[in-house]
Give the backbone structure.
Amino acid sequence: MVELSENARKGLDDYLRQVRSYLRWSKSLDPSEVEQNITEHIERELEGAPEPVSSSALDGVLARLGSPRQWVPPEALSWWGKLILKLRTDSEDGRLAYISFALLLVGFLVFLFPPLMLVFIAASFITARAALAAAGSEDLGAQKWLLYPALLVVSAVFALTLFAGPALLGGAMGSEERRIQWIRRDSNMGVTAFVTSAMALVTSLWWMLLGLLACKWPGLIRHPLRPFADGFNRRHALAISGTGLLLLVLLAVFIAIYMNIL
Amino acid sequence: MQCIIVARMDDRFFDNWSTQLRKGMLELCILNAIDGTRLYGYDIVRRLREIDALVVGEGTVYPILSRLRREGFLETTIEESAEGPARKYYTVSEKGRNILARMNDCWTKMKTGTDKLKRKE
């Protein structure tokens, strides 16, 4: 072997160490053969160079050889090796996508411990949102498959709570026995009809308010539900308010018919 | 700004395309370089280096040599060298010569067809 300067020796050792770290994930390559190919190639390239060979001369040879990773072509990698190398070398947002998906899976696996499940799902959601932010306006490509599950789960729960939560609250309040008796003392309304009316009333009022708020600040809906509500605008907000108003009118008609006012 | 983005997209497209093309061409060139003679790794790299834009990282040649040997297209013999450590010499096997003939034929057809299309412009 040609004599290398101390820095050049360190550079070569570092290159070989990196190649070895990739070779660990190969199922078919012989590490000693690859190492021999590298050292033989370097030796032949540096033949005739003044010794000890400087690190700049060696760097030129290593640069022409190319990245340590290319000594282990994709077809020589095991599937877990491909996965690990992808995680190690992907861009920041690429790694975030894998982490988000893994956290979501763990969240589902620990479903017997709800608080822990919530923590993992929340972490998965935050990681997915960070990946979305890192990607900016670029197309996410296949990463969508890893990011969207966490976003979809949390967005669905959020949307359900946002739109139907107050109705359930209204139903719970309306079904409280003492309150029913107090309100129904002068009416002949059945319990089911009363609870349904209470739910419809709260829902209609909430949707009207939510629509008006979202009309003023569309981001209230758009941001928490990214990327599914990216197209949300004032027109959609007015539609929510309008639906609330329609529900209120229908409720008034229903009550009027029920109480024989009409 | 838009021009820079479009240029970068074009560069990425060209890089992807040339990488794919190079992958296939490297195997053909390696087999052609060794056919009818016997060469060791470094000599093969040096020959391929003469073709512009074919070898981006010289380290890519060695894994291809290993794969072609595993596939049975190349045979190896190890010989002691007076200039240093023992060298691994590569020769094209019978199976390798058969596949090389088919590959060359395929390449000729593709090249002729591409040239015809170019002339139409």
